[in-house]
Specification:
The protein has 480 residues and is mostly helical. Helices cover 47% and strands 4% of the residues. The chain contains 18 helices and five strands.
Length: 480
C-alpha cells in the first residue's frame, strides 16, 4: 500500500489516517500510533530488511565505517538530512525503549508491539556496533557541513561518510552515558522476549557506563563538527540517567549507590530533550521510590520532588511551562514539538507510576489530561485545524523539510540526482512526492501559526527525537 501512496502522492494517503477522529469525536490514536512507527522505517540507514514497509526508500550508506575497518551500517538519520549523529540517535532509542517498557500491553493490544520492538532493535543494533571496543564509541557518521550543502536522497548521497569516535584520549562521557542508557533500556525492553540479545546489550551498556565515569569530557570537544549541530551542555544528566536505567536492568547495589550518592539530581527542569535528561532520570527515580526500590530520602527524594514540580508546572501553566493561545506547550521556535512530545510522555508515564498516589497539584487524571491535550493538538485539535503528524488526518504538512521525501523515490526515478541538482526539488512549492508517514514536524510558533514550506526548516523539519516519545504516549492513551 505504501508503494502506491508514494507513486500517487498526497491525495492517496487518506486511507492511513484520513479520519481525524475514531468515531466518538476523539482523535484516532491507533492510526496515529501505527503511523508513528512507520516513520522510523522511513528514517532507516543501511540495507533495508525484507519486512520494510516504507517502499519508497532504498538501501543507503552501505560503506559506513569502512574508513575505520568497522561496520557502522544501519541506525537512523536524525532529521531531514543524511548524517548519523550518535547523541540524538541514542536518546531516540532510549525513548522508544522506555515506551515499550512502560506500555508493552497496550502496544501489543494495538498490534504494534512487534513494530515498536523492531524500531528499538534497528537503533540498538547500530549503537552496539558503534561500541567497537571497551573504550571506543563511534558517535557520528557523515559531515554535517558538506551534507547540508547538498540536497540528495540518502540512496544517492556522495558526500563524505567519515566516521568519528570518542575514546580514552578523546573522551565523550555525555554520549557514552547516553548510549549506555539506550542499550540498558533496550535490554529491559527485550529481556522477556530475547534473553540472549538483552544480555548482549546490557554488556555493552555496562562497559559504556564505566567508560563514561572514568573518562569525563564533553564529546563535542573531541568531535568538533558535532558541536555545530548537537552540542552538549554537560554530562551529569546522562550519567545519572544511565545509572538509573542500569539499576532498572540489574538491581545492582553499585548503581543504586551512584543514584543515592550523586549530588546533582538536576533540580527543577523545564524540558526533557536529547541534550537534557534529568527529567527522565527523575521520573524513573520517582517510580522506583513509589515501588519501594529506592529510599524516599537524600538525592532520590530530591529528584522526586523536582519531578513533581516539573509536572505541576505543566498542568498549572507554572514556571517555564508557557502555552500558545491554542494550548500547545511552548518552549522555543526551533522544533518546539520535541519538547511537547517528551513532556507528554513523562506526564503519561508518571500518571501510571502514581498508582493511586497524588501530587500536590492533582493526580493521574490531571497528568493524563495534559498528555492528551498535547497529543490532540498535534493531531489536529488546534486553531489551524492541521495535523502536525504527516499522513494523519485530512490536512497535514505537504512540504516537509526532508531530503528523501522531497526528491522522487529511487524506485521510480532511478537516475542519480546530484548534490546540487536536488535543490531543484527543494525550491519547488509543490507537495513532496513521497509521504513521510508518521513524521512530526517542528510545529507552529508560539501564536499557533505554521508556514508549510520546506525552506522553513525551523517549523517544517521532523526529527526522530520528536516522534520517539509519542509512541509511548499514544499507546497509553489507547489504554483508557
Amino acid at each position: 500500500m505504501v508503494r502506491l501512496l508514494a507513486a500517487a502522492g498526497l491525495a492517496a494517503l487518506c486511507c492511513l489516517g484520513c479520519a481525524i477522529s475514531s468515531g466518538d469525536g476523539q482523535p484516532d490514536y491507533r492510526a496515529a500510533l501505527a503511523n508513528s512507527l512507520l516513520y522510523f522505517e522511513g528514517q532507516r540507514s543501511g540495507r533495508l530488511p525484507v519486512s520494510q514497509r516504507v517502499q519508497w526508500r532504498g538501501d543507503s550508506a552501505l560503506a559506513d565505517g569502512r574508513d575505520h575497518g568497522v561496520d557502522l551500517t544501519g541506525g537512523y538519520y536524525d532529521s531531514g538530512d543524511n548524517v548519523k549523529f550518535g547523541l540524538p540517535m541514542a536518546f531516540t532509542v532510549t525513548m522508544l525503549a522506555w515506551g515499550v517498557v512502560e506500555h508493552a500491553r497496550p502496544l501489543e493490544a494495538a498490534g504494534e508491539l512487534r513494530n515498536a520492538l523492531a524500531a528499538v532493535r534497528w537503533g540498538a543494533d547500530y549503537l552496539a556496533r558503534a561500541h567497537a571496543a571497551e573504550e571506543t564509541l563511534y558517535v557520528q557518521v557523515g559531515d554535517g557541513d558538506s551534507d547540508h550543502s547538498c540536497w540528495q536522497r540518502p540512496e544517492d548521497m556522495d558526500t563524505p561518510r567519515t566516521a568519528y569516535s570518542v575514546d580514552a584520549s578523546r573522551p565523550g562521557s555525555d554520549v557514552a552515558a547516553e548510549t549506555a542508557a539506550a542499550l540498558a533500556a533496550s535490554a529491559v525492553a527485550f529481556r522477556r522476549l530475547d534473553a540472549g540479545y538483552s544480555a548482549a546489550l546490557l554488556g555493552h551498556a555496562e562497559q559504556l557506563f564505566r567508560f563514561a565515569k572514568n573518562r569525563r569530557g564533553l564529546y563535542h570537544n573531541s568531535v568538533p563538527g558535532a558541536g555545530e549541530f548537537y552540542p552538549s551542555s554537560g554530562d551529569e544528566d546522562e550519567l545519572i540517567w544511565a545509572a538509573v536505567w542500569l539499576f532498572v536492568a540489574t538491581g545492582r547495589e553499585d548503581y543504586k549507590a551512584f543514584i543515592a550518592g550523586d549530588g546533582n539530581g538536576g533540580g527543577v527542569q523545564s524540558t526533557l530533550s536529547w541534550d537534557k535528561k534529568f527529567v527522565g532520570a527523575q521520573a524513573l527515580v520517582a517510580k522506583l521510590i513509589l515501588q519501594g526500590k529506592l529510599p524516599d530520602a537524600g538525592n532520590p527524594a530530591a529528584m522526586k520532588r523536582s519531578l513533581e514540580q516539573f509536572l505541576c508546572n505543566l498542568v498549572q501553566h507554572g514556571g517555564d511551562a508557557e502555552r500558545s493561545p491554542g494550548g500547545m506547550l511552548w518552549v522555543q521556535p526551533w522544533n518546539n514539538m520535541q519538547y511537547v512530545t517528551s513532556a507528554a510522555f513523562v506526564a503519561a508515564a508518571h500518571a501510571d507510576h502514581l498508582a493511586g498516589a497524588s501530587l500536590r497539584c492533582g493526580g493521574a487524571a490531571q497528568l493524563l489530561s495534559f498528555a492528551r491535550s498535547q497529543v490532540d493538538y498535534i493531531l489536529g485539535v488546534n486553531p489551524g485545524r492541521m495535523s502536525y503528524m504527516v499522513g494523519y488526518g485530512p490536512r497535514f504538512p505537504a512540504q516537509v523539510h526532508h531530503r528523501g521525501a522531497s526528491v522522487p523515490s529511487i524506485k521510480y526515478s532511478p537516475g542519480k540526482i546530484t548534490c546540487k541538482g536536488g535543490f531543484d526539488y527543494f525550491s519547488k512549492s509543490t507537495p513532496n512526492p513521497n509521504v513521510l508517514v508518521g513524521a512530526i514536524v517542528g510545529g507552529p510558533d508560539g501564536n499557533d501559526h505554521y508556514n508549510d514550506s520546506r525552506q522553513n526548516f525551523k517549523q517544517a523539519e521532523p526529527s526522530t527525537v520528536t516522534v520517539a516519545p509519542i509512541v509511548g504516549v499514544l499507546a497509553r492513551l489507547l489504554h483508557n
